[in-house]
Amino acid sequence: MPPAGAPGAHPIEVVEDASECVRAAARQWPNRFEAIVSASPKLRRDSNVVRALASLHTPESETILVEAAQVREAGNGYLRAAAVASLVARDSRALTALLPRLLGDRHDAVRRAALDAAHRYGDARSLVALHRIAANPRGKPWERAKASGATTKINRRSPQS
């Protein structure tokens, strides 16, 4: 099968074009897009589709994103990261209950997205995981700094914690 995209295009460019096509379809035909994704377990596990769901603000699309954020099988780290990023883009509060586990994820992209979410609107349920990340001397400096900042922000929002 010949590669998609312009002749001589780099594979990354082809993937970026395909991703943009998926996002455009979600924006152009949101109801049809959501119906097709809802009916297809394979599409619900596609990170491009999950990113496109960020633009749909329906309960069904949020359910799909929450489920994608919880997929634990090996090889799905980018799917989980895309789901978390989409939930953050939607400003979804459904993510707050998932944050403690996502903050301990082995995949860097998932932890990064979860740290962004915790910094934006994490609550006291995330504090134990954030303290563990911030206090880990072998942890990555950016993770420790982000966890420390999120902890400070959560404590400011809820002083009783």
TrEMBL record:
Give the span(s) annotated as Disordered: 139-161
Q: Which domain of life is it from?
A: Bacteria
Q: Where is the composition biased (Polar residues)?
A: 149-161
Parts forming coiled coils? none
Q: Which InterPro entries match?
A: ARM-like (IPR011989), ARM-type_fold (IPR016024)
Identification of the protein by name:
HEAT repeat-containing protein
From which source organism is this entry? Asanoa hainanensis
